[in-house]
Amino acid sequence: MASSGNRTCLSLVLAAGEGTRMKSALPKVLHRIAGRSMLGHAISSVYRQGSGDASGDALAVVVGPGRDDAAAEVRRFAGEADIFIQAARRGTAHAVLAAQAAIARGFDDLIVMFADTPLVRAETIARMRAALAAGAAVAVMGFDAVDPTGYGRLIVENGELTAIREQKDATDAERALTLANAGIMALDGRRALEILSAIGSQNAQNEYYLTDAVAVARRLGLKCTVVMASAEEVMGVNDRVQLAAAEAVLQDRLREAAMRAGVTLIAPQTVFFSSDTRIGRDVVVEPNVWFGPGVEIADGATIHAFSHLEGARVETGANVGPYARLRPGAHLGRDAKVGNFVEIKAADVGAGAKISHLSYIGDATVGADANIGAGTITCNYDGFDKARTEIGAGAFIGSNSALVAPVKIGDGAYVGSGSVITENVEPDALALARGRQATKPGWAAAFRAERQGKPKKRP
Ligand code: UD1
Ligand code: CA
């Protein structure tokens, strides 16, 4: 990767989009791809990605008026970010200048990124910063468009970028150019305000175009350059069809990265990751598995088919599924087993513990090597509050038991099948809480004999 050395950098993300084509109550940039908002993706691809010292890096985000939700999302990724509001949409250069106070603090590099371009790789941003380090005042991310309609065209003369022409302002000859502006721009942070404030709005849309930074920089005798990226990488998202297309690209990247890092995916196309999924070596993931946000899987675990995981940590050698659901706060210890149709929420399952079939374990601690029988339910909710269940190490819970929280089962204790446990059970005790069985020898035969030959009652 190109080194950006110790140059300081301001990453500026423009997120003041309208996004009306999403047909959504949610602003466009908060729609998610691989479990992370597009705004989050944009921030992660530009902010603190340099290979050098990141202590001089800063982040500024421009949001639309009243967009507290977008601002809150920025804070989730970078609490220290400066958030600016662009009161009226008057063009991309105008949006950049909404963050004038941050730019004025003086950075070596300024990266301007659109929040609806979620697939840009950090390496590409590093190449743009390298272009600045090599002496360019403006570096523009370009790509070869199959259909360049709607994009700004990069005008290159004698190998030098001289201008960017917006679709609406272009001549027919310029519209025939396929070298298009991806929308991401790197500027010499020491000259940026001088360049940006010289941009006017005399164009077909009466907007302040960031793209005019190129022509302005040229007039000031500064050098402008193009950094190429693939069309896939700069894919923009304006509607839900493009959202799904971007999801597909990102999932393929995540699958490939997992396999290259030592994970076996038997049917990669059926496994869905989140951007933050962390998964160790020699993990085997069977077909049709979903990883929501916040999942961490240690080396050598197996995730069987049709499992759904979210906010969960699975330790080495543990087995999950098939058809298991791990919800936020599930933590499976080393070699633990959670089998089919088992749901775990906010529960610590100790090493070697087994919950093999048809159970709900929520707000609980399960000790090491405990055995939880089929159909065990922790009754953790009374309609108002949640309460905890603690099951000791080596305890044995008989099948079809209900543990009514708050309740503690001591180490090594037994709970008889079909019990409804409402009181604590001391270590090594046996608790039975069920109706006693009554058996009447010969009763069934006598009943049949008595009924024989009598007409059946019709309801
Ligand atoms: C822009 C570029 C075009 C490039 C294309 C790539 C300009 C003038 N044109 O065109 O060369 O090929 O992106 O997708 O820059 N925004 C604001 N405030 C504004 C206007 C825009 O925050 O006042 C934000 C939008 O939310 C969006 C981004 O800037 O994230 C781009 O704006 P948009 O209007 O979509 O620009 P394009 O016409 O697509
Ligand atoms: Ca656009």
Looking at this protein, list some descriptive labels:
459 residues, alpha/beta, Spore Coat Polysaccharide Biosynthesis Protein SpsA, Chain A, UDP N-Acetylglucosamine Acyltransferase, domain 1, 2 domains, twelve-stranded parallel sheet, ten-stranded parallel sheet, 10 helices, 19% helix, 29% strand, binds uridine-diphosphate-N-acetylglucosamine
> Percent of residues in helical segments?
10-25%
Q: Can you tell me the CATH architecture of the largest domain? A: Alpha-Beta Complex
Give the number of helices.
Answer: 10
Total discrete domains: 2
The fraction of residues assigned to DSSP E strands is 25-35%
Task: Give me the CATH fold name of the largest domain.
Answer: Spore Coat Polysaccharide Biosynthesis Protein SpsA, Chain A
Structural class: alpha/beta
Briefly, what CATH class of the largest domain?
Answer: Alpha Beta
Instruction: Give the overall pLDDT as a whole number.
Output: 95
Shape: elongated
User: In total, how many beta strands?
Assistant: 36
- Could you describe the largest sheet, including whether it forms a barrel? 12 strands, parallel
Bound molecules: uridine-diphosphate-N-acetylglucosamine, calcium ion
The named CATH superfamily of the largest domain: Spore Coat Polysaccharide Biosynthesis Protein SpsA, Chain A
**Spatial gap, N to C terminus:** 80 Å
User: What's the Cα radius of gyration?
Assistant: 30 Å
Low-confidence stretches: none
